[in-house]
Specification:
about 400 residues; mainly alpha; Growth Hormone, Chain: A; about 0% strand; globular
């Protein structure tokens, strides 16, 4: 009898990670048919200002984050996470294409809020499900793989939009309607493919009281310091809609915006798996710090760019920031917090992102309108550097999966 090779015995990603990656691929293909074109639709078709674009996107992300806290907490109390994940994806897939019939910025806001409600319901339970479906030794790779699939969908979506705009000469509203197809397919794949992980239907200590999760010490000091650094970073991380507007200012045509957006997501997708896997080997903090420094450098560059090719180069560099940080941050949370509180931890994480999203986007839009785009980008870069300093205080100690 021969011994199995180490490669054969290595942990694998498994069914849930693969299926959830496919669902994210399809969902992002649907979303990104619309999202890169939305700021241009708002400013040119509906006549809104940059500050209004920032307010809509900031409000949408804040709504999503608030619900991620509630859904994550609830999924820790319940015996099943899948129903929340399915409900969230289904609601977003139904609401998203309605942008095609919007006649005002207020209607776009209502649609974006509904879309983000769906995202808020599904986000924390999904991430907890991924963390519980793989060996802790490959958490970074698992989250990186999921993000890679998500970004691959964000490559396909803009390419579909580009083809419909350039070759079929369809109006923006008709292009937005096409987004319904991959959205519906994503829900079907989710319902048929994802399985619950074995777990007890027990609530964490003290959670039987009515109301929202308490801000207690059960998540650990390192988690709260990390959360503080994320909040500070998010205050300088405005909606990417401003990057699209800046690229348009630098000469990127409306028809080429989907291609630029697709190129960004090619880099995101290509960098996500190596970034997550590297965090399994080198540690989470160094990868996050490197990513935040890249982010700051890109924002400084956007503020000073003068040529069209600068926009293309900076968008590609921006993609590496996501590859270094997205999967790594999700894996770090699973490292810091035990299984019985993991959904709640992801909820707090997304809440911090949401709390910062609205003021970040509104502030950015106001500085853009009243001072200059350069000043707005410099504010974002400064806050990213400040967040990196706070992150240095985090001392990760891997939690058990009890």
């Amino acid at each position: 009898m021969t011994n199995a090779s180490p490669r054969a015995n290595a942990p694998r990603l498994g069914r849930n990670v693969l299926v959830l990656a496919a669902v994210s691929f399809l969902t992002d293909a649907s979303s990104e048919i619309i999202y890169p074109l939305l700021p241009i639709f708002l400013t040119t078709v509906l006549g809104t200002s940059a500050a209004t674009v920032g307010a809509i996107e900031g409000a949408a992300e804040t709504t999503s984050a608030l619900l991620k806290l509630a859904s994550g907490w609830w999924s820790d109390r319940a015996s099943r996470r899948k129903p929340l994940v399915v409900a969230g994806y289904a609601l977003a897939s139904l609401a998203r294409p309605l942008v095609a019939i919007a006649q005002s910025a207020a209607q776009v806001l209502a649609i974006r809020l509904t879309d983000r409600v769906g995202k808020g319901i599904r986000g924390s339970p999904r991430d907890a499900l991924i963390a519980e479906s793989v060996d802790p030794a490959i958490r970074g790779r698992a989250f990186g793989f999921h993000r890679a699939a998500d970004h691959a969908g964000a490559v396909v979506g803009p390419l579909i939009a580009f083809a419909l705009l350039r070759w079929e000469h369809l109006p923006l509203r008709t292009v937005f309607l096409v987004a319904a197809l991959p959205g519906v397919l994503s829900v079907i794949v989710l319902v048929l493919g994802v399985r619950e992980t074995p777990r007890d239907a027990r609530a964490p200590a003290g959670s039987k009281k009515a109301g929202v999760p308490s801000l207690d010490r059960s998540l650990g000091r390192a988690f709260w310091i990390f959360l503080g650094s994320v909040l500070l970073f998010t205050l300088g991380n405005s909606t990417d809609a401003f990057l699209i507007l800046r690229a348009n200012q630098l000469g990127v045509s409306v028809a080429l915006v989907p291609i630029l957006w697709a190129a960004l997501h090619v880099v995101k997708s290509a960098a996500s798996v190596p970034g997550g896997a590297l965090s399994d080997r080198l540690g989470r903090k160094p990868l996050i710090l490197a990513g935040w420094v890249v982010y700051a450098a890109v924002y400084i560059g956007f503020g000073r760019a003068t040529e069209t090719w600068h926009a293309w180069a900076l968008f590609l560099a921006y993609g590496t920031f996501f590859g270094l940080t997205e999967g790594t941050q999700a894996a770090l949370i699973a490292d810091l917090v035990g299984r019985s509180r993991r959904g709640t931890a992801y909820g707090w994480y997304y809440l911090a992102v949401g709390i910062g999203a609205l003021p970040a986007s509104v502030l950015f839009g106001l500085v853009w309108d009243r001072v200059s785009p350069r000043a707005a980008f410099d504010v974002g870069a400064t806050l990213a550097f400040a967040a990196a300093v706070v992150l240095l205080a985090v001392r990760p100690q891997r939690a058990t999966d009890a």
